[in-house]
Amino acid sequence: MNPHLKKGLCFIAMVSILGYAQSQKKPQNTMNNPLLTDWTGPYSGVPAFDKMNVKDVKPAIRKGMEMHLAEIDKIAENPAEPTFENTIVPMEKAGSELDRAFTYYGIFSSNVSSPEFREVQKELSPEISEFSSKISQNEKLFKRIKTIYEKSRNNPLEPSEQRVIELIYEDFAMQGADLDEKAKERYAEINKELSGLYTQFSNNVLADEENYVLYLEKDQLGGLPDSYIKSAAQAAAQRGKEGLYAVTNTRSSMDPFLTYSTERSLREKVWKSYYSRGDNADEYDNNEIVKQILKLRDERVKLLGYDNYAQWRLQNRMAKNPENAMNLMMKVWPAALARVEEEVADMQKIANSEGANIDIKPWDYRFFAEKVRKEKYDLNSEEVKQYLELGNLTEALFFTAGELFNFNFKLVKEGSVPVFHEDVKVWEVTDKDTGNLIGLWYLDPFARQGKRSGAWATTYRSYSELMGKKPVLASNNSNFIKPAPGEPVLISWDDAETFFHEFGHALHFLSADIKYPTLNGGVRDYTEFQSQLLERWLYTDKVINQFLRHHKTNEVIPQALVQKIKKASTFNQGFATTEFLASAIMDMKYHTTNPDKIDPDTFERETLNELNMPEEIVMRHRTPHFGHVFSSEGYATGYYGYLWADVLTADAAEAFAESEGGFYDKELAQKLVKYLFAPRNAIDPAEAYRKFRGRDAKIDALMRDRGFPVPAESNQ
């Protein structure tokens, strides 16, 4: 997607939107459409989520695209000599109506989807792609951009303007703006085909998540915690199955079930349902779609002269090329496999001692890992959860933001800001010292039908000086299991880390201090760094001693339990690293291999065999439901980016750990905000990190962090 064409896109939730489209239809009275109109009310206007209706989506998107295209055409037809002021500035300002329409589109797509909306989405996807091509392949527009860019190479503009023109020129060039007419036409056709395939892929996964629900009887609940049982009962009742218990086909439901259920046959069933999403040889099967996506991507980049999709995609990432990304992953892979071997041996020993007479299978891994955790570290995950109550953790987020960013969070009175679901709460974010308004933070915490699984962050409105310095509207979205009425929301340590992680994205949005909307974009293998770094504050004494309190007694978590948590921090890193890396390596292999030779099922199996993938573990995201890669282009050949960013994270965390004030060192926190959060993409990521750290990051910090041997050659 061209970042200058869509300001304020959701960071993750909207990755499935690949551009803009224009319909030849002329909808009537569309300016009365609530999805297009200016946002009104407090905080310089807020989305009218209370006025959302699926019937308004098509006319809103179509009219918004029509208006945006008219703005672009006016810029392209300007007879004056191209300048930054008469070309780039109006481009940056264009498309405000479309921005608003896409905000609602993103909510419908990710938070409150329905069969009705999915039909709308299916119809709009090719139109969206078609319109994107009309802009990125506008010959007159690109000529103006190229003129400004070439002049700037000899006579550089001021830094923020120079960064903007370089990013815009690079993006247009990557999207085929320099192709001949025949190649442009095919390029646009491919994008149109891909947009439909992405939507279909995503909807197929969502259908399998909704359709595969396991209902349990009371005598099938062995080992499950009371909180899970109560939530499962409520989930069943919501589906008209009163008296039963529902295990839904989402990670938030699957993970604890596999960890605690003593019913091995049911664990196998739940595991197979979850990891077979999109792979059931039915109308929702995604294997053929993956083949088509890979072939079309390959054909498209060959039009531009690249050998493969990964080579094209990574040229403007920190990794620069697929070889560098693979080199990093393969430095870590052997250590991860060695750790898995140790973990499986520990689990098998316990299974044997209990007379289980089994070999550890993938559906056993979490269950026996929990037993090993208890034996090795005397650490009971269910005991830890009693101190991880969602309300307290939310306050922990706010405390961290206050200490590092000087932000204050105040809950907005219910009803004063429209929300799209009753579960959503909104907070006002201000500067602690001046009281100046920074923005709003929306939280949508619970899983439900029509909401995609996982956790993500979005912006409904981003900050930029050019657009009037309006308050940021940021959002975090989780899929915690909603408790029975009156029960607390208790989450796992992993989920607490994810909560901090996604809040890191929100802080990245809220702390932005940039002039031009394009600079709100990001480099994919860098944008996860800030959020991964924020996870580290969950482990700090100030957070632990204030906010990790027992949900019944309000007692602070005992230091003895904290020490067990810290001691076990590298526990199960073989599993965690291997399941992630398997997906990341497969992503890169898919996009550096001739697609004519790929049958997804066979290719996945054979490639993992060549990598000596342990049979006790499966990829975190198997190919048929790997939405990061196949429901959009957001993370295609970019899933490795989490590891790349984690190298930066581990290195930066050591900087805090070594500083005089530790993780709350004021001087280092100021540098963190100044160089790594506020500039967004106004500074080259490598340069920004060097300004913060004084040098490049090294892989040795990552290896120490995971308890792996440090390689002799440790530079990234």
From TrEMBL:
Enzyme Commission code(s) on record: 3.4.24.70
Keywords on record: Hydrolase, Metal-binding, Metalloprotease, Protease, Zinc
Catalysed reaction, written as an equation: Hydrolysis of oligopeptides, with broad specificity. Gly or Ala commonly occur as P1 or P1' residues, but more distant residues are also important, as is shown by the fact that Z-Gly-Pro-Gly-|-Gly-Pro-Ala is cleaved, but not Z-(Gly)(5)
GO cellular component: cytosol
Cofactors named for this entry: Zn(2+)
Domain (Oligopeptidase A N-terminal) ranges: 72-184
GO terms classed as biological process: proteolysis
Co-factor note (free text): Binds 1 zinc ion.
InterPro entries referenced in this protein's UniProt entry, alphabetically: M3A_DCP, MetalloPept_cat_dom_sf, Neurolysin/TOP_dom2, Neurolysin/TOP_N, OpdA_N, Pept_M3A_M3B, Pept_M3A_M3B_dom
Entry keyword annotation includes Metal-binding: yes
Origin: domain of life: Bacteria
Every Peptidase M3A/M3B catalytic domain range: 257-706
Keyword S-adenosyl-L-methionine: no
GO MF annotation terms: carboxypeptidase activity; metal ion binding; metalloendopeptidase activity
Name of the top EC class for this enzyme: hydrolase
Family: Belongs to the peptidase M3 family.
Protein name: oligopeptidase A
